[in-house]
Design brief:
Strand content: under 5%
Number of helices: 16
Order of helices and strands: HHHHHEEHHHHHHHHHHH
Mean pLDDT: 91
Distance between the termini: 16 Å
Number of strands: 2
Shape: globular
Helix content: over 70%
Largest sheet: 2 strands, antiparallel
Strand order of the largest sheet: 1-2
Radius of gyration: 20 Å
Length: about 400
């Protein structure tokens, strides 16, 4: 089982490391790997996920079928765009199903959480250094097209922050429940938290702070460790996080918090999306078609090309219609309880909340794949809550 966990982890890491590439081959390579892994696990007679995971999988699978319904009905304004999105959602279904099946085993899940926490910490540290010294070059080598605010392979501060939101609760969970490596994971959590501050993502900072509070509350309620150990771990994280934040500096985040220059454009994108839903409430315009539809509904010419609605939920409603967004809402409702109770899955809830003010699920499908992998891992918690994980 750990071999399968390792294969999934490697694919996810490669997907993130190449997330900046606009060429299709990087994501296609990831998709091919996921389909091959799914075929291998099917041949090896995988275990059946818990009932709650099956219900969530059914809702997600129905959502993945919806773009092909749009194509069959001829309601999409861009068949190529909707076809591409349909393949993407099929990939997400497989990532979620594989995660539910592989991480039902405690050892594989614990190994995976430790691996991604370590990988995420290293990449967050490198990304923070790069942000201050690379003049916009990815890993100091590859031109990104931007001269600043490029963090590792991410050319968007908000997408970087959304990715860290997935990993911060994992590092905190391991720091709270671990014994030998508690200090190491506490340092990892501090590095991840400070990298969000360095990114100057407003939503990322607010949600990361909320994650810390929720993780501490959930760990206390679940008695994940003795109270003294929890208190010491919390104090350790607070000291380390404040120290790391002082090193990276608060200036960029302060400027962003005081600035509201982009809000007018974002609000117009949401307003336009609502009008799209009113015109096509049931069928939508087709997944992957929002950039084509927006100019017809724009309230003014902002002088920039707007490729996303900066609100995934309203964009899903505009592109997929109400049936599609309702299926995803069902998936989210089934996810939130095991995500919070597992502690390490809190980041998936923060990720979905971030989707109300930005687009972590759009444009970069490799980032969405990480969400579904962590969601599947969170869904395995009810099957093992009677055991010490």
């Amino acid at each position: 089982m750990k071999r399968a966990a390792g294969a999934l982890a490697v694919l996810l890491c490669l997907g993130i490391l190449t997330i900046w590439l606009e060429e299709r081959w990087a994501w296609s390579l990831f998709q091919a790997g996921i389909f091959a892994l799914a075929a291998w696990r099917t041949v090896r007679q995988p275990r059946v996920p818990v009932r709650l995971a099956l219900a969530a999988l059914a809702a997600l699978a129905a959502a993945a079928v919806w773009p092909f319904v749009q194509l069959a009905a001829g309601t999409s304004v861009s068949r190529a765009g909707t076809w591409t999105q349909g393949l993407n959602w099929c990939t997400f279904v497989l990532v979620f199903a594989l995660s539910c099946e592989i991480f039902a085993e405690d050892g594989a899940r614990r190994w995976f959480l430790g691996f991604i926490a370590g990988f995420g910490t290293i990449l967050a540290f490198v990304s923070t250094l790069q942000n201050y010294s690379s003049q916009g070059k990815i890993f100091w080598l590859f031109p990104s097209g931007y001269d600043r605010d490029v963090l590792g392979p991410f050319v968007s501060r908000n997408q970087f922050a959304a990715w860290v939101e997935l990993l911060l609760p994992v590092a905190l969970y391991l720091a709270l429940t671990g014994r030998r490596l508690r200090t190491l994971y506490g340092c990892a959590a501090a590095v991840l938290f400070s990298s969000v501050i360095a990114s100057a993502s407003r939503a990322g900072f607010v949600l990361s702070c909320g994650e810390v509070l929720v993780v501490m509350a959930a760990a206390t309620a679940r008695r994940a460790a003795p109270r003294k150990a929890l208190a010491l771990a919390a104090l350790q994280f607070l000291v380390l996080a404040l120290g790391a934040a002082a090193i990276v500096g608060w200036q960029g985040l302060e400027v962003r918090l005081e600035s509201g220059r982009s809000e007018v454009v974002r609000l117009d994108a949401v307003r336009a999306s609502v009008h799209m839903v009113r015109d096509r409430p049931w069928a939508g315009s087709g997944l992957g078609t929002w950039p084509m539809m927006y100019p017809r509904y724009a309230g003014f010419d902002a002088g920039v090309y707007l490729n996303q609605a900066h609100n995934d939920w309203v964009q899903w409603a505009a592109e997929g219609g109400l049936p599609f967004v309702l299926l995803l809402a069902v998936f989210a409702l089934l996810l939130w309880k095991p995500a919070v109770q597992s502690i390490y899955g809190v980041g998936t809830v923060a990720f979905l909340l971030h989707a109300f003010v930005d687009y972590p699920m759009q444009q970069r499908p490799a980032l969405a794949a990480w969400f579904f992998a962590l969601a599947g891992a969170a869904m395995t918690w009810p099957a093992s809550r009677s055991r010490n994980v």
